[in-house]
Specification:
Layout (H helix, E strand, L loop, with lengths): L44 E7 L6 H7 L5 H9 L5 H4 L6 E7 L4 E7 L8 E8 L2 E8 L3 E10 L4 H7 L4 H11 L14 E11 L2 E15 L2 E9 L5 E4 L19 E4 L2 E5 L6 E4 L2 E4 L5 E3 L4 E8 L5 E7 L3 E11 L8 E2 L4 E5 L9 E8 L2 E3 L17 H19 L8
Antiparallel strand pairs: 1-2, 2-3, 3-4, 4-5, 6-7, 7-8, 8-9, 9-10, 11-14, 12-13, 14-21, 15-20, 16-17, 16-19, 17-18, 18-20, 18-21, 21-22
Length: 415
């Protein structure tokens, strides 16, 4: 049941009887609205977070955190245990500070670079009239992210558009580097889907972990990789049917670069000004770019050698060897007889020897015969042992189902 009331628009409000009433309101003090405990219970410290940017100094970082405390800055600069802050201002780290209402530092949590796979922080705390600093391990929790993206320009462009960390992009190149040359083989429209670990502390991301599964479709051909750790504790990446995706050699010793000179039996040398064979591949890259060992091996030579300049020669198994020339320097501790693992950083791009500019000269030899590293069929690594295949099959079925969830999702495109 509903009732409606109507009024004529011609109603004269002035004809309605009106009466003015004045009432005295009681005055209530502001304190009556505060908690019974009084203003002393209002917090007097605040928590701020800031991400370290390129070009940041300790002073600029503290200023953005709202810290106005000369004693705190002096402690960081002078205390031996706190000086590590000045040496590890790596962009991207998130620094947390608890400060008083007048800008005095109460506590600073500064993430340290990883040491032997352990995440640590430097904890600086006010202690009476001074400060203390000590390193602590972080308790990390692992969460899983599932992402998908499409290549329109480059791998990094696609991962950036999809919000995928650079560290995961590097892993994609490492995992599929034996099948896909990321310098030459990428095509617009190539797609990839992956699930990977994100390590968090107190609910906040600290760093990305390992790729758990990935599928990369390159020029219409699909490549899959699943991380699996066997009963012997050894882990690796395998195809859906248990074949080892890892090749005995990476296709390229650089993560990302461009080929400036290919393998040929006749090339005009820009310095010697004559025609001669070019028995390797040149990769143009800035000085200092990291150079990786393309396979497990032993350092046969590391030093200066004629036109190669600073060069490293690695011996792999019995018949394979690789050469890395024109380096600006070697990795710390690298010397003849040292054992290296595929993917280890062994040196840095330079322009030593007969070089017109910074680049890496890379050679691949089989029984001391030069072979083209871009086209040679690379030997594979051993597959999973037969006794581990049943457990792997169950695991593969589960994790591939996760990848299937994102195949129909929105693809991140790079404009």
């Amino acid at each position: 049941v509903a009732a409606f009331g109507t009024a004529s628009s011609a109603l004269d409000l002035q004809a309605v009887p009106q009466q003015t009433i004045v009432e005295q309101l009681a005055i209530v003090p502001i304190a009556a609205f505060l908690p019974a405990e009084g203003p002393s219970d209002i917090p007097t410290s605040f928590v701020r977070e800031e991400r370290i940017g390129r070009g940041d100094s300790v002073a600029s970082l503290l200023n953005r955190l709202g810290i106005q405390d000369d004693a705190a800055f002096a402690f960081l600069r002078q205390a031996r245990e706190a000086q590590i802050v000045f040496r590890q201002l790596r962009p991207g780290k998130i620094v947390t500070a608890r400060i008083s209402e007048n800008g005095a530092l109460q506590e600073l949590v500064f993430p340290l670079n990883m040491d032997k796979g352990v995440d640590r922080v430097l904890l600086v705390q006010r202690n009476g009239s001074g400060f203390t600093a000590l390193e602590q391990d972080l308790r990390l929790e692992s969460h899983t992210e599932i992402k998908s993206a499409e290549i329109t320009y480059s791998l990094f462009g696609a991962t950036d558009a999809a919000g995928i960390p650079d560290g995961i992009a590097m892993q994609i190149a490492d995992i599929f580097g034996g099948d896909i040359d990321f310098h030459r083989d990428l095509r617009k429209g190539d797609r990839f889907s992956l699930t990977y670990e994100v390590l968090t502390h107190l609910g906040k991301p600290v760093r990305s972990g390992r790729i758990l599964a990935a599928e990369f479709v390159n020029n219409g051909k699909a490549f899959r990789a699943l991380w699996f750790q066997g009963s012997d504790g050894q882990g690796g990446y395998y195809t859906g049917d248990g074949k080892n995706i890892r090749k005995a050699f990476l296709r390229s010793p650089l993560e990302f670069s461009r080929v400036t000179s290919g393998f040929t039996m006749s090339r005009f040398h820009p310095i010697l000004q004559k025609w001669r064979a070019h028995t390797g591949v040149d990769y143009g890259a800035p000085t200092g770019t990291r150079v990786k060992a393309t396979g497990d091996g032993i350092v046969e030579f590391a030093g200066n050698q004629g036109g190669y300049g600073r060069v490293i020669v690695l011996r792999h198994q019995s018949s394979y060897s690789t050469v890395y020339g024109h380096l600006s320097g070697f990795a710390a501790g690298l010397k003849k007889g040292a054992r290296v693992t595929q993917g280890d950083v062994i040196g840095y791009v330079g322009a030593t020897g007969l070089a017109t500019g910074p680049h890496l000269h890379y050679e691949f030899r089989v029984n001391n015969v030069f072979r083209n590293p871009l086209t040679i069929a690379l030997p594979g690594a051993p597959p999973l042992p037969a006794d581990q295949l049943p457990r792997f099959s169950e695991y593969a079925k589960e994790i591939l189902a996760r990848l299937a969830l994102v195949k129909g999702s929105n693809i991140a495109l790079l404009d």
